[in-house]
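During the reporting period the student researcher (J.K.) took over the structure-prediction task from the postdoctoral fellow and processed the backlog of single-chain submissions. One of the processed entries is reproduced below for the supervisory committee.
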Amino acid sequence: MTLRKYAFLPLFCLLGFAAGWAQNQTVNQKKAAKEKKNMEKQQANVRFINRAPAGYSHVVEVRGGRTLYIAGQIALDKDGNLVGSGDFRTQVKQVFENLKARLEEGGASFKDVVKLNYYLTDASDLQALRDTRNSYINTENPPASTLVVVKQLVREEYLVEIEAIAVVSE
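J.K. obtained the following structure tokens:
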């Protein structure tokens, strides 16, 4: 008779463990859902620090939000044709139009851009680059920027390539 009493003990232990485990899973799922909801509502807090006279910020601090990394854009139209062969100003304009389109695809705009990287084959017409850039970016809080002069881009006819990083609120 005593053996029968204890025969159900492993079953009761297993049921107790399963109930505790299920309750713990429910608590963990609720906690994860709450964290996800908080992350979704997280606003991007962007601070532009130490604005340089040449139209960029030395430091951009970002807390929260969703980050977009835009690959280097070149002066190709939507059909893949080069725009502005040999014309730096026209290529820069097309590149900024391409950046604008990529940003919009990611739910962003130029006001969300925190970093721009420029790759030029010739830096002799920086004013054309600055003029075009300033017609797109937030000039009150300009993004951090890096400009590099390279021997050649992926194809000889490309004169400029620009990549961007943007941060948008969730």
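The committee noted the following: The CA atoms of residues 97 and 135 lie 11 Å apart.
J.K. will present the remaining backlog at the next meeting.
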